[in-house]
Amino acid sequence: DQIIPKLNDVFVCGDMSFQVVFFDTTNENENNNSLVLLGTIYDHKWLFTGDIESEVEHQLVSALSESISYLKVPHHGSITSSTMRFISKLNPKIAIISVGKHNSYNHPSEEVISRYQSLGTITYRTDEVGTLTFHFYRQFSSPLVTSEAQKRKPYGYLKQGFNFWVWMFGK
Question: Would you call 147 exposed, middle or buried from its count of C-beta atoms within 10 A (0-12, 13-18, 19+)?
Answer without folding.
Answer: middle
